[in-house]
Structure formats: C-alpha cells, structure tokens
Amino acid sequence: MQTLLRLSILITLTMFVIVAYAQEGGPPMLVDDARVADYKEWELNSSINTSITSKLTLSVPHIDLNYGIYPGLQLKVEAPLILNFNNGGKIGTKLGEVSAGVKYQIINEVKYFVSASTFPQYSFNVNRGLLVPVFIEKTFDRFLVGTALGYFWGDNNYRHSEYGAIVGYRPKDNCNLMAEYFSNTDHSLVKGTSGYANVGLRWLFGDNFMIMGSFGTQVVTPKHLQREKFISWIGIKNLF
C-alpha cells in the first residue's frame, strides 16, 4: 500500500510540474471532483464504457444524472446496462451497479484555502453498501491539483478503500486534458489492490453541451483477478 501511495504521489507531482492549467475530475475520469451542480441545474452524462480482459465488457448506456437541489448541494443517480461478450460468441446482459447519493460542498476556495466536498452514496445491487468519499482541490494561478479518498462498507463484510489523484491541462478555453491515478484496495476476506492509469479529454460546445472521453489500463492487478488491459469512457454531457 505504501508503494502505491508513493507511486500516486510521484505521478501527481510530476504532472504538476509539466501542466499549464488543471481541471477538476468527474466524468470521464475515475476520480471525482469537489464541484457540485449549480442550483436548479440538471447535468446528464450518457456514455459507453469499455473494459477488456480476456473478454469484452460494455456499459451501454451508462447514465449519470445530477441535479443541484440547493446551493452547494447535489443529488446524483447512476445506472449502467452491462453487456458481456463471451469467447463463445454469446452476449450476456445485466443491470450494473445502481447507486444514488447526495454531494455536499463543505468549503469553497473562493472563501477558504481549498475546495472540499463529500459524496455519501448507496449502491443497491452488485456490491451493495455505502461509499463515503472526500474530494479536495486547490488552484495555484493556472494550476489545479485534486485528490480523493473514500471508504466503502458493504454487505457480507465487504469493505474497500479508494484513493485517486488527478491533474490536467487546458490548451483552449473549451478544451481540458486530464491524467489520473486511481486505486481500490479490498479489505475483506479476498484482499487485493487494483490500480489504474488513465487520461481523458473534455471538449465544450457552447454553454450546455460537452463531448468527453478517456482511456487507460490497469497497472496493479490482484492475483485472483484478470488484468483489465484496456478501459475507456466516451460520452456526452448536457446541461439544462
């Protein structure tokens, strides 16, 4: 675990040196951000997500719906449809992990030194349980560095912790490039850590429409699981 933590810190510091402007996490990245939806604003993220091990798995569509119910407070519901393409040519279909939660911005760096949010969310199937993450961001002129920490309490004594670090670059006002490291450590009976390196892009068209995408690979794989050789996220965001 210490080795993974050192690796993620090294990646964060290295990217911090080379980027010219950073942007927060959230879709299409694995690491979330400290921002919340504006008051009375809807955000709809719809995407196709890909995972390749020895077989192809698609999440299509993957729906992520958010609404700002109060200044600094956001509701979120997420639901994917999973397609598994087996080696025999058969396609298996199932509902993925459905979750809902409330995201609250604790502090904003406009008034304080950093921005910080928490996002308690409950998963209703697959790994059923409660995830409580905290997101912290800080800007330095044209720079922004973000990190996320979370812990999951699930059924049947299933528990895991999450850690992520993200930075980015804005070559244009309507374009954001991002890079991240994200890890998930299982603390239940089957112990192991998964780590992912990922890069992403957001391109804004007008004020209410955005195209987003990311791709990466699993760099740390538990012995009892197959390595995810390729992961991707491609989709759109609508604001209304």
What do these coordinates show?
This protein has a single domain (2-239), classed as monomeric porin ompg (Porin, Beta Barrel), CATH 2.40.160.40. It is built from 1 helix and 14 strands. It has one helix spanning 2-18, and strands spanning 42-52, 56-70, 73-85, 91-95, 99-107, 115-118, 121-123, 129-140, 143-154, 159-172, 175-186, 192-205, 209-220, 230-239. β7 (121-123) and β8 form a beta hairpin. The longest helix is centred in the N-terminal third of the chain and has 17 residues, at 2-18. The protein is globular. The termini are far apart.
Give descriptors for this structure:
mainly beta, 240 residues, Porin, 7% helix, 14 strands, single chain, disordered N terminus, 1 helix
**Whole-number count of domains:** 1
The structure class reads mainly beta
The CATH homologous superfamily name equals monomeric porin ompg
Low-confidence stretches: 1-23
CATH architecture: Beta Barrel
Helical segment count: 1
Beta-strand content: over 45%
**CATH class type:** Mainly Beta
**Any idea what the shape is?**
globular
The gyration radius over C-alpha positions equals 18 Å
Distance between the termini: 42 Å
